[in-house]
């Protein structure tokens, strides 16, 4: 058997095959965190690190929120597990109602999952089954988008648009086409919020309809603001245009709000901030403030009603997870939503967004290879030019230097990405920007 981690033996870290990680490289310089509070992590060697990523785009209310911690503890004491297959517990109904109260339009029916990936695969399954139950059995095709991230399930991977995440796992779902990504350095560099250029890219959906016929298309799925692809805000008018084309052609529109949900754009969901209401929303991450795994696919009344026409006694949607509506996750989600409300965090997010935007955009000119800065709500990307054509940029080295100087940032290709907790104060914003500026100056 391997030695313990406490023993500091490198072998002690071999058993954990780490996700999305260069395992051998990690083990040479492990980043290990032992506790967290509010805006900071503490490392195993006693350093405080400012969390510029809200964990992994999820700890929107900051770490160690006592009402959430206490709710999880109390639930663990009371009811550890009950299935939600033909039974459930009060927490499931309570959280579903709380989520429904946060969504725009008639997005009022919540199907629980354990992750964003499962939420996406669930939404795709709802979309196909929706058309089938209504007799449109030919509508099986999905339209995704380049640079999209929709998780790692087969469905999400298939509609996702990040090539290096897909290539080892082909063949993926067959009936999928992709729209172009909406980002253009030429037309949008250093835009604050939604770019003016790019609404016309939504018309690529018309091309897909022309090629495949609308009667074969079940749904279009997009992140309102693409996250892992590098924080790509939607061009003005783009989502409106997608919505209109979907409506004209009987296609469902799915917003993957796993990152944008729960306050990133100053509203509970980005759909509200952006003024476009989809037929389905997927969420996870901020739903429990990252504290217990949970996701959800949220369906509109129209979608839900189509299933409820089946004979009573029939299982309307043949899908579910052992841990759908897990009691601990429900307790965490209910407490998290209360924290967002009680501490006014969505409003706070909207209020500090202009300050955030100004501060991050001040990095323009911090180094000659800063070729774009993008901000939207409390999200940001700082993109660096490749060192030479075909070569990597300095982004990885800059992120490492920032970490050594006490700020955790993440990478998306050649961009540094930021998504801090919404409790962030002006001093934290200054620290993030100063630390990145210093790293940009000092790293070769
Ligand atoms: N959809 C979106 C939009 C996401 O951002 C998922 C689905 C999948 O969620 P789960 O809970 O299954 O991981 C995500 C997750 C990164 C990174 O480096 C981002 C995510 C996951 C892993 C890495 O930016 N987002």
- Helicity, as a percent range: 25-40%
Total domain modules: 2
CATH architecture of the largest domain: 3-Layer(aba) Sandwich
Distance between the termini: 42 Å
| Spatial order of the strands forming the largest sheet | 4-10-9-8-7-5-6
Write the layout of secondary structure elements.
Layout: H1 23-28, E1 33-37, E2 40-43, E3 48-51, H2 54-57, H3 66-78, H4 90-102, E4 107-113, H5 116-133, E5 141-145, H6 154-159, H7 163-166, E6 176-179, H8 185-188, H9 204-212, E7 217-222, H10 238-249, E8 252-256, H11 270-274, E9 280-283, E10 295-300, H12 301-307, H13 327-342, H14 345-361, E11 370-376, E12 379-384, H15 395-404, E13 407-408, E14 410-412, E15 415-418, H16 426-442
Parallel strand pairs: 3-13, 5-6, 5-7, 7-8, 8-9
Antiparallel strand pairs: 1-2, 2-3, 4-10, 9-10, 11-12, 12-15, 14-15
Helix pairs in contact: 3-13, 4-13, 5-12, 14-16, 15-16
The structure holds 3-[O-phosphonopyridoxyl]--amino-benzoic acid.
The site of 3-[O-phosphonopyridoxyl]--amino-benzoic acid has 18 residues, from α5 and β14.
